[in-house]
Amino acid sequence: MSAPNPWWRTPIAVWSCAGVLCAGMFLWVMGGWILSGNARVSLGALGNEGTPLPGRPYETVLWITTVFLTAGAVLVIGWVVRDCRRHRAITFRGALLVGLTVNIWAAPMVAVHHEAFGYSTAFVNYSSWSDHIPGWHSPVPSSGMRETMVSALPGMLFAIMWPVLASWLIRPILRRRPALSGARLLSAVYLAGIPAVLLVTWFMSFTGMVTSVRGTPGLTLFAGQWFQLSLVHDLVGAVLLTTTLVVPYHYHLRAGHDDASIWRGLNGVPARLRTPAKVLSGVALANVAFLSWILGGVISNSLTVPMPPDTFPFPYPYPLP
Length: 321
Hints:
Layout: H1 11-35, E1 41-42, E2 45-46, E3 51-52, H2 56-87, H3 92-102, E4 117-118, E5 125-127, E6 146-148, H4 153-158, H5 161-176, H6 182-206, E7 211-212, E8 214-215, E9 220-221, E10 229-230, H7 231-255, H8 271-301, E11 305-306
Antiparallel strand pairs: 1-5, 2-3, 4-7, 5-6, 8-11, 9-10
Helix pairs in contact: 1-8, 3-8, 5-6, 5-7, 6-7, 7-8
């Protein structure tokens, strides 16, 4: 019998090294943005010119939505912390949540090819840190970009609902077919994962958090409305997110607490390095998933045309010039 590979040649080591690179990008981009003096936060202004909100109804809806987003993020954090406390160790969900937090460095990259989404600058919003991303280039100037609560931390934390919802949707299938394995199991994961991603994405559209601004005539639902849904963009993104996020999450649940596919080889890692290795691998997986979604946006943008909605939700104006 051949000797087992040393731990530094196992999946956990590869993913951890990738996580170090992603964490380094986070520190470089966000640290550079903060230290540059260009980090500015504003609240309750419409558009890039900072026009004040026109009345109390706007302010009321704005604050209700802001409180909802903040409370939702706190609940997500509390749920994951409880999960880690129950296992007395960092769990896969915990590592993934840290990774989703680190993802904020890449938020401006949704405009790396074409602007695909509109969102309200009436939320708590920040000056863009896109200029601090190495090699950044976009047809959308950084001066015309704002990052909001939706694209920053609370919005990133909500992304954990993609794999969680998919795991709930697949339970009835696994109860009826507990012996599923191989290609059939993978097909079942996609059958649950793609609708889960679409449901969360469409929820964000129908609540006015984000607005699709590109689409394909005949393949865009509710075209012209503020909640229009670009099927090409959403389906491409759903397939890629299911592949890079939902599938690893599901196989972790099937394998057990310490045997997720990206954690293979964990038992061979020195005890003092196991928690950092778990966290860094989660950071890498979350960043790979988000960057694959960005790649999907580049692909779908090449297949779509500008279709800014004719109407906007109250009080969610389209923020670009």
